[in-house]
Amino acid sequence: MLRSRKNFLFEIKRILKVGGILILSTPLNETQRRFKPENYFHLREYNWEEFGDLVSKYFLIKERFSQISPISELNTKLSRLSSYSRIKRIIPPTLKNFLKKILKANSGKILKGFVRGLHTQIIIAIKI
Questions:
Q1: Residue 44 maps to which CATH number?
Q2: Tens digit of pLDDT per residue, the chain (128 long)?
Q3: In angstroms, rounded to a whole number, what is the distance separating the alpha carbons of residues 110 and 64?
Q4: Same domain, residue pair 8 and 42
């Protein structure tokens, strides 16, 4: 089992061929909450500089992007409502599925570089 982010990146570098491409993404979190994220499945989130510094220790970064996902934006806003769990229970499944389809059709605006307020950062790097 990999015990740290450094071990994770080292292992990727070890198995990737020279010239191999790494595409890695993580939530973009510019707040102090990045050390204890709201998402239960995230152990740690990174701001723009931290993520770049970490990956550049192991790979040559070629491109960086910011991405906004309407689904994650909506989930974030809804999860902050104290009544969200009650709302989730009363929305009929057909309406939930309809909303998911609309959001999915409009998801994924990707912009080159750092854009404040977006939710995800993506790095494309190569092993040298």
A1: 3.40.50.150
A2: 446 888 999 999 999 999 999 999 998 888 898 898 888 888 889 999 999 999 999 999 999 998 876 555 565 565 555 555 666 666 677 776 776 666 565 556 777 887 776 678 899 999 99
A3: 10
A4: yes
Do residue 49 and residue 96 come from a single domain? no
Please write down the long-range contacts of 95-102, taking CB distance under 8 Å and 24 or more positions apart.
100/71
Q: Are residues 32 and 86 in the same domain?
A: no
What the block records as the tokens of 106 is 């409009």
Tokens 């198995």 belong to residue: 15
Looking at the chain, list the stretches that DSSP marks H as alpha helix, in order from N- to C-terminal side. 5-15, 48-56, 70-79, 84-90, 93-105
* Beta strands 109-112; 21-27: pairing state: unpaired
